[in-house]
Design a protein that fits this description.
With about 270 residues, this protein is mainly β. Helix content is about 15%, strand content about 40%. A hairpin with a 3-residue loop joins strand 17 and strand 18. About 20% of the residues are buried.
Length: about 270
């Protein structure tokens, strides 16, 4: 009796090596990294389809006898992967039940684009499995005898849970703002706007009054107009004490200086004693 042998040659383009344990008898295809992030505000995750292009062809005998092969996406235990975990795409189209059929009568021959879309329900980290042959009328595929080995090639990918990019941007901005606020309040503010130490300014003439100083006051202004310092300015620069009296036709400014000294800014023609 004559033995009929149909052969489908199926090879991977751009397959890569990996440091993890490998099956040396089966070609490997690394699909790369699939990333997923939790929804935040209006930004939601939609994992991309990881794609690789494969070459295939039937020999003459298989072509003449309308050879076909049903091929499935399986895990490392040869169990078909459910479509809510990984969805198999062929030439950009999703398959049903992660299974598709290649026939020698297909118009598009020679190349096939295989895509994997990983969903959040699937295991995070390194994942692997096989493209496995099911129903067929072939005896061999590549160098594999289908009566003994039905795995065409081994697929690999990394599934990573990453932070939402919008949330990450907000966290970076928030952290940056907090860093500069701490830098300003703990160091820079007192360098640009030094404060008085505890003390008192006593006014004897032409009227009697006293101004009690503390570490929150950065400036004393003698003026004839009531001025209200804004809350933002007070928080970020320090408090300005306004001494209001009609005798001050022009403002006089007092500010602390190094060495327990006071810097005085007087209008032209004015003087202070002592």
């Amino acid at each position: 009796m004559k033995t009929n042998i149909g052969i489908l040659v199926f090879t991977a383009i751009l397959f890569s090596s990996c440091s993890k344990e490998k099956d040396t008898t089966i070609k490997e295809v690394n699909f790369g990294i699939s990333e997923y992030y939790d929804p935040f505000l209006w930004v939601k995750s939609d994992t991309v389809v990881l794609e690789k292009t494969l070459k295939y062809n039937f020999n003459d005998y298989a072509t003449e006898n309308n050879a076909y092969a049903t091929i499935s996406l399986v895990d490392s235990k040869n169990k078909i992967i459910e479509t809510d975990n990984i969805l198999l795409f062929i030439n950009g189209n999703p398959t049903q039940d992660n299974t598709f059929t290649i026939s020698s009568n297909d118009l598009q021959k020679g190349r096939i684009k295989v895509g994997l879309k990983v969903f959040p329900s699937y295991n995070y980290g390194y994942n692997t499995g096989y493209i496995s042959v099911g129903r067929n009328n072939l005896d061999r595929i590549n160098n594999n005898d289908l009566h003994g080995e039905n795995r065409l090639f081994k697929w690999e990918l990394e599934h990573e849970h990453v932070i939402n990019p919008l949330l990450l941007t907000l966290l970076i901005l928030t952290g940056t703002v907090i860093f500069f606020l701490l830098l300003w309040f703990l160091w820079l503010r007192n360098s640009f706007y030094p404060k008085f130490r505890k003390g008192q300014i006593q006014i004897l003439e032409p009227y009697f009054s006293g101004i009690r100083l503390n570490k929150s006051i950065r400036e004393v202004v003698f003026t004839d107009t009531k001025i209200k310092q804004s809350a933002i300015n007070k928080i970020f620069t320090g408090k300005i004490h306004y001494e209001v009296n009609s005798i001050y036709s022009k403002n006089i400014h007092l500010a602390p200086k190094k060495g327990n000294k006071i810097k005085i800014k007087l209008p032209f023609g004015a003087s202070i004693k002592p």
